[in-house]
């Protein structure tokens, strides 16, 4: 690796008007405009790294401010200086004596940390000429461990235990890598059943998905019980008894309400209920898990679990049966590695959250690494897939027979097309300028 200095960081507010067609809608987020804070870092020798974090439109400008506040930690650093002590660098970003007050390791500042560090990991993988998953797979276990901040999790996972897991994962890893290159990693789809889609659209999308090999489907629930019963019945009839169904309430309920509501949906045999209640309510998730276990329904959560400490407690309290890591919510690859290793120790399957803008592109790298080097298992495991906005990426995901095929291009698959970034910049990009025009302004809008 050359001794290359990071000399520039820029960040853009890039928004897609997905709310116009109700893509991404759920019981709590009824009109999301899928968006990113998009970071580009540049070195003195002309190499670039791309990173992002996902948002729902409004508030992306606040993430931009936070990224700018972190930029001082990055500009002037050499890439080798960062990766030779990645744990130290992670600490600088997350534990600065003044900045940590506006976190620590949660909220907007953590989203910004994710965006910035995702760009650094992309830069590192590009500088090595490898896709990120391969950089991780080929990395010496001790080096991987040196990227993780174990602060606050040693009561659940020590460095030595993490190293032992990774050393064990070396056995058979070449065969698993070949298996992934040949068959890919299993996926499920959420694209058919956003809450705002009418039944006709749901049916049509489900028919198309079944014809292209999808067998695992997630349905949004939580706004109206009778609607949920009707939609779940419809989709269960379409996918048949052997298809896999998951339901997602996006934090809509109180604890007791979650148990009552999901019990009413048990006849449709969902594998899991996702985000039944507040993402911060660990004991609530534990109570729901306990109540639903006799029905064979697990609890899944993680897309708004903001750091490793929360995941640690969810695992310690047996509060979830499926760990949903997120590449842009946690503190990038560094913190995701910690969660993958904890999940392995607690023997809880990881089924990543994806979708949004670029989340599929990023998280596929992490779950491939998990299978090849950590869990070595595909039991009860699958990665979410959502069929939106891939066309805006330079190296979009490749899905074959409902499996993620391992990316081949160097980097973290984070680079967006320049044209897409330019056209969707908020508010000055053409797409938004057009939507602000008097003729279009009549639409029901969440945009101010
Ligand atoms: C607002 C997002 O679309 C959310 O509904 C995504 C989600 O919960 C999921 O993909 O799972
Ligand atoms: Mg969800």
TrEMBL record:
Its cofactor is Mg(2+). GO terms for molecular function: L-fuconate dehydratase activity; magnesium ion binding. InterPro entries: Enolase-like_C_sf, Enolase-like_N, Enolase_C-like, L-fuconate_dehydratase, Mandel_Rmase/mucon_lact_enz_CS, Mandelate_racemase_C, Mandelate_racemase_N_dom, RHMD-like. Residues 428-448 are annotated as: Disordered. Its EC number is 4.2.1.68. The keyword Magnesium applies. One of its GO terms (biological process) is carbohydrate catabolic process. Coiled coil: none annotated. Keywords: Lyase, Magnesium, Metal-binding. The keyword Signal does not apply. This is Mitochondrial enolase superfamily member 1.
